[in-house]
Design goal:
Blueprint: H1 3-15, H2 21-32, H3 46-54, H4 61-64, H5 70-88, E1 101-105, E2 112-115, E3 121-124, E4 129-133, E5 141-153, E6 162-166, E7 169-173, E8 177-182, E9 188-195, E10 198-202, E11 212-215, E12 219-224, E13 230-234, H6 237-240, E14 247-254, H7 255-266, E15 269-272, E16 281-287, H8 292-303, E17 305-310, E18 313-318
Parallel strand pairs: 5-6, 15-18
Antiparallel strand pairs: 1-4, 2-3, 3-5, 4-5, 5-8, 6-7, 7-10, 8-9, 9-12, 10-11, 12-13, 14-16, 17-18
Length: 329
């Protein structure tokens, strides 16, 4: 069943008050995404009849308009279930197969804006995945940044804290705005605050008291996922969310992180001729649509480097110094 057919039946059954609890969850999420607006005004048109005919289920027209038609209800339920399996299983579409949990994923070059059940907004960067409940619990609002990067603008609720789990960290707020970068290919989780106050702590550790930092605007925490060290520093928070404006910005970033980000973005492998180069730090700004060659050329020029490219394998090396010939005697 095509996506359009599934959406039409979903709207028709909502208006007829025939949706199950699970179907209602799907309906309200799709409604928040703006996918149902045009259908709500024409839920019982001829296209609805064609959906049933295309699926070899025929009913008299009078029955199609009757809420009391049991046959229609059963048939529509079967079609809707099949449609949900087909539609929701598509890559990048919200996944309701896990009970009570919404999972949203982005591919390379894709960004998404998400409305959470409490009215908060999340912007999901490329190559990222987030999970959140269809309905928050009574005492806490908890989401999981499974992988990637997201900017959170959280609706304030002093009775129900907001908590983001990401790679061994918990970020807790009441109502504020902050960015979390937690890609699996990076060795650290980075939390940056743009508004309000945020508490970042290490996930529960039974061997010792979890480390904890309080952040205010223009402050950032970096949590090393290997050493478990957590460091706080002052930053320009606008740089951390430049990706929302289509920029690729590195702010005093290690070469190890820079190359990991470029590897993921362009699908290449980058190696260092000298391993000590990984600890170099650099700052640079590009447009997200800049080519890899353009980025490498500018990085090399700014850091006195050379690079060699062969079969999607890039090697960075220090530029050799030119030794001037001695003056003749």
């Amino acid at each position: 069943m095509e996506e359009k057919q599934f959406l039409e039946i979903l709207v028709k059954r909502y208006v007829a008050n025939e949706l199950s609890e699970k179907e209602l969850e799907a309906f309200f999420h799709l409604l928040a995404q703006g996918k149902l607006d045009s259908l709500l005004n024409r839920y019982l048109d001829k296209e609805s009849e064609m959906i049933l005919k295309d699926n070899q289920i025929e009913f008299p027209a009078s029955h199609l308009l009757s809420k009391s038609s049991r046959g229609l209800s059963i048939a529509a339920s079967v079609i809707l279930i099949l449609g949900m399996v087909f539609f929701l299983a598509k890559p990048g579409i919200v996944n309701f197969l896990k009970k009570g949990v919404v999972s949203v994923k982005t591919s390379k070059g894709e960004k998404k804006e998400i409305k959470l059940p409490d009215g908060s907004t999340v912007w999901l960067n490329e190559s990222s995945r987030i999970e959140y409940p269809v309905k928050f619990a009574e005492d806490i609002r908890k989401v999981v940044l499974v992988d990637g990067e997201a900017y959170f603008d959280i609706k304030r609720d002093t009775t129900k804290p907001f908590n983001v789990e990401a790679s061994g960290t918990n970020t807790k707020v009441l109502g504020t705005a902050f960015n979390i970068r937690s890609y699996h290919f990076l060795e650290s989780v980075q939390v940056t605050v743009t508004r309000g106050k945020v508490q970042v702590e290490e996930a529960a550790n039974w061997s010792r008291k979890p480390q904890r930092k309080i952040l205010l605007p223009n402050e950032q925490v970096n949590f090393d996922t290997k050493t478990k060290s957590i460091k706080k520093m002052a930053v320009n928070s606008a740089n951390a969310v430049a990706w929302k404006e289509g920029k690729l910005l590195f702010d005093n970033e290690s070469f190890a992180n820079v190359t990991a980000i470029l590897e993921n973005k362009f699908g290449v492998k980058i190696a260092f001729a000298d391993e000590s180069m990984k600890s170099y730090h650099m700052s640079a700004e590009f447009i997200a649509t800049d080519s890899l060659a353009h980025i490498l050329n500018l990085l090399s020029l700014a850091n006195n480097l050379d690079y060699h490219l062969e079969n999607k394998q890039i090697t960075l090396l220090k530029k050799k110094k030119n030794i001037a010939n001695p003056m003749p005697m």
